[in-house]
Write a structure and sequence with these properties.
The chain has 28 helices and 30 strands. It is of the alpha+beta class. It comes from Electrophorus voltai.
Length: 865
């Protein structure tokens, strides 16, 4: 008679319902009489069936589940009653609040007691001339002891709004319609009507109507089904199930069912449709066909409070919806991830909030692992993120990445079917690498967010192992930043992959500087090989310069200096007095570096040039080292002293060091003795002349200092500066005597030395001063006289020009030039002093012959007329 089958394509999309027998034919009819099922109604566990022989049956349905998880129904017949009518009931509707059953039979509505099946006395409990009715499941009256419904009048083009009470049916309002409706559904104030040629929405409170779409009720039976608050399902042309709300708008895409649909029911999120040979199940969420059941002779399909009942002419069946989780797991098992997520999110309104959140997270995590197994990493990451996956679930797929001390165990029931990464990749090295690359990116994002909270050690250790294995550049960044890598698990892994530099940083992060330095020294010495580090020696030097453990600094300083004395160790120091525990005293460092000449020189440069330490012994020591460095240096080809190895800033440092010398004994030790063969740091007469001049000044040997500056260096500016400095610091007499000597020997410097260095000595040395100043005074006064004469002549010329500029000069052909005595042929002329006109060429010739006129031509411009 009926059987469960696959969909029309031969494969089931998802098993949403099971078809379970509820009432067999033998329970409906006697042995001799065979009647067909006409209509059914269900209220809780009570099932009412009306057969074609006008008998109303009352059954009690008891749902059971077998040991194998199959659903069954045990049916108990409670009562049956013959209706007082010649025709069977066309429609039944239970009003449980009133304990009444509304029966449409022979175009009349009557009330029957739900328990005894006795008809309520007809004093107002019967309404005649009715073709169809619909109970308002969204009542607007607010009376809990009545049921609202709309009935279609058989005699008029109208719909009556009624209320059903325990003993009567009361008509409240008549709503006129354009044509007599064939079917209707009611929700609140809205009526969805199937007219003979179209569907419409009518608000019976305001009278506003909205036409929907045409439909020929003579060709196909119209279907109008309320599916939710102010939303209806309609059978549309072309085998479509259309959705429409109270405003006449379709907010869902239509479902595609067959042209011969007889009835429809809704069990969210599915729409169940019955045609001549099949029952189809479509999703309201994505409008896809989910299940098809083969069912013969079916003609009744209705939903009752979550149950879907299906009846043939001979029996009644229940379409039992499978649990939502079972349906979702079936979809996930068939790798239909998006459908599973749509079903989960669409069923949210039917699941308690807390339960839904837990279910949704788990489904997202399962979906993420399915897409991870398909190498769809971007989609998998998004599902993991939304599902708040414990990142250790993902790490556990990769062998040996989780620390041995981790207490993590996989989720039960499992989120995926993979034992490890090898099973997922099936021996494909490329897939393994892609999966590891994905995990690196995912763990980095997890560390940056809150996904790693509570198990940071597992995440950081796993990320370190991945970095080390892949030779990733971010390994050092991970170790240099705040991290929770476990040393016991990380150290063997780094050694395995020859990441000794990173291992040293890990030891340093865990406070084991001695082990880190020992490891790095072995790498530099060649005992170990780390291809990722190219300049480890300089890093060790910098590390020692920052190391607070002075014992380690002294331990490895000698090793570093033996490797290369040119590197600056940059020891921390306290140049004045006792040093903190974490700093080195500069005097101790200098004493230690006595056997390393080059390192000592660099360290003193560090103190003097970089730290700007103003201590005489450091500057003196540096000057002595510089002097030792340039002793014996050859003179350059251009005749100037050469100092190989001394760049300009070092030479300046030497001069500064010499200037800081305060002790006469130290200064004398630096200068050559009276007999050059007896030694001296600066004994070469061609080298370091400025420094020698400064030292002679320290010893008050100003004549020798000035002699070097003027005669050997020929630097008058330096000699001037020296006189200014020495006269301010040492007093006048010796400087004056020295400058007098220099005057007679170097005449070119006498003026500037007297003018700038000896302004207070005018009365002491008249012969010197007169000789030095005579020429300059004479030149100055001669210049002043010439300037005065020029100014007087210029004033006189301006006076003459203004005098003869007062009026016009009349020209005619009868007038003649005063110089050539020829007449004028044109008005162009020039005027001589006194206003006499002359030819321009005559005036030019005159000026060339007279020097005074030439000067006059340069000082003013003649007037032209």
């Amino acid at each position: 008679m009926c059987r469960c089958a696959t969909d029309v394509n031969g494969s089931m999309s998802v098993k949403a319902f099971e078809l379970v027998p509820a009432v067999e034919w033998e329970q409906l009819t006697a042995e001799k009489a065979r009647a067909a099922v006409e209509c059914i109604e269900c209220c809780g566990e009570h099932l009412y069936v009306c057969t074609s022989d006008c008998v109303l049956h009352h059954f009690l349905l008891e749902a059971r589940t077998t040991a194998k998880g199959r659903h069954t129904y045990r049916t108990q017949k409670l009562l049956q009653k013959v209706l007082n009518s010649k025709k069977p009931a066309a429609e039944l509707k239970a009003a449980s609040a009133l304990d009444r059953l509304v029966v449409l039979c022979d175009a009349a509505i009557s009330l029957v007691d739900m328990l005894t099946l006795e008809a309520v006395p007809s004093g107002g409990a019967k309404l005649r001339g009715v073709t169809a009715f619909s109970v308002n499941e969204n009542p607007v009256t607010g009376d809990a002891f009545c049921v609202e419904m709309a009935v279609v009048s058989a005699r008029r083009r109208a719909v009556h709004i009624c209320t059903v009470h325990e003993d009567r049916v009361q008509v409240l309002k008549e709503v006129v319609t354009p044509e007599q409706p064939c079917a209707l559904a009611m929700d609140g104030y809205f009526l969805c009507l199937a007219l003979p040629m179209q569907y419409m929405i009518l608000n019976y409170s305001t009278g506003v109507s909205q036409d929907l779409f045409p439909y020929n009720s003579q060709e196909r039976k119209p279907i109008v089904k309320r599916i939710g608050r102010e939303e209806f399902l309609l059978a549309a042309p072309g085998g479509l199930g259309m959705f429409a709300n109270a405003e006449g708008i379709s907010q869902r895409a239509p479902v595609s069912w067959s042209e011969g649909v007889l009835a429809a029911a809704v069990c969210f999120p599915y729409v169940v449709a019955l045609d001549e040979g099949f029952v189809t199940v479509h999703s309201m969420l994505d409008q896809q066909l989910k299940q098809t059941l083969s069912f013969r002779e079916g003609h009744v399909l209705q939903d009752f409070e979550g149950k879907v009942l299906l009846a043939s002419t001979k029996a009644v069946f229940v379409l039992v919806p499978l649990p939502l989780e079972t349906q979702i797991q079936d979809l996930l098992a068939s790798r239909r991830v998006e459908e599973a997520l749509v079903l989960t999110e669409g069923a949210q309104r039917n699941i308690p909030k807390d339960k839904f959140q837990m279910l949704h997270k788990r489904i997202l995590q399962q979906a993420g692992f399915i897409q991870f197994g398909q190498l769809q990493f971007s989609e998998a990451k998004e599902h993991f993120r939304r599902g708040q996956l414990d990142v250790r679930e993902l790490i556990s797929l990769y062998p040996l990445l989780l620390p041995a001390s981790s207490s993590f165990t996989r989720c039960q029931p499992p989120l995926h079917e993979f034992a490890d990464l090898s099973q997922l990749a099936q021996g494909d090295p490329e897939k393994v690498e892609r999966c590891k690359h994905f995990l690196i990116g995912y763990l980095r994002e997890a560390r940056a967010g809150e996904a790693a909270n509570g198990f940071r050690e597992d995440v950081d250790t796993a990320l370190l192992k991945l970095y080390a294995e892949a030779g990733h550049d971010s390994l050092l960044d991970l170790l240099a930043s705040e991290n929770a890598c476990l040393l016991a698990d990380s150290a063997p892994w780094l050694e395995k992959h020859h990441r000794y530099f990173a291992l040293g940083i890990l030891y340093h992060y865990n406070g084991q500087d001695a082990v880190a330095l020992q490891l790095w020294v072995r790498v530099v010495n060649g005992d170990l090989c780390d291809p990722t580090c190219t300049n480890l020696f300089q890093y060790i030097v910098d590390f020692l310069s920052r190391c607070p453990n002075l014992d380690l600094v002294w331990k490895y300083a000698d090793w570093a200096l033996q490797k290369d004395q040119k590197v600056t160790l940059g020891f921390r120091f306290s140049p004045r007095g006792p040093s903190p525990k974490s700093s080195l005293n500069a005097d101790d460092v200098i004493t230690y570096l006595q056997k390393h000449h080059r390192a000592l020189l660099l360290y003193l440069e560090h103190l003097v040039l970089e730290r700007k330490v103003q201590r005489e012994k450091y500057h003196t020591h540096l000057a002595v080292l510089y002097a030792d460095q340039v002793r014996g240096a050859p003179v350059s080809a251009c005749g100037h002293p050469g100092a190989p190895g001394l760049c300009p800033h070092k030479t300046a440092a030497l001069a500064e060091g010499v200037q800081l010398v305060q002790s006469a004994a130290v200064a004398r030790s630096l200068l050559p003795p009276p007999h050059p063969s007896s030694g001296g740091k600066l004994q070469d007469s061609e080298l370091l002349l400025v420094e020698r001049a400064i030292l002679h000044g320290k010893l008050d040997e100003h004549d020798t200092a000035l002699h070097i500056l003027v005669h050997q260096l020929r630097d008058t500016t330096a000699a001037e500066d020296y006189c200014t400095w020495a006269s301010a610091a040492r007093g006048h007499p010796q400087i004056a005597a020295a400058s007098t000597t220099i005057f007679w020997a170097g005449i070119s410097t006498r003026t500037c030395l007297v003018d700038r260095g000896l302004r207070g000595l005018w009365g002491c040395y008249p012969p010197f001063l007169c000789g030095a100043l005579r020429a300059s005074v004479h030149a100055c006064r001669t210049t002043q006289v010439a300037l005065g004469l020029a100014r007087a002549e210029n004033l006189q010329l301006h006076r003459d020009r203004l005098k003869y500029r007062g009026g016009p000069i009349l020209m005619s052909e009868k007038k003649g030039c005063h110089l050539c005595h020829n007449t004028f042929r044109d008005p162009e002329c020039m005027c001589l002093p006194g206003g006499t006109p002359v030819h321009t060429h005559c005036a030019a010739q005159k000026l060339q012959d007279t020097p005074i006129k030439r000067r006059l031509d340069r000082t003013h411009t003649s007037n032209h007329t």
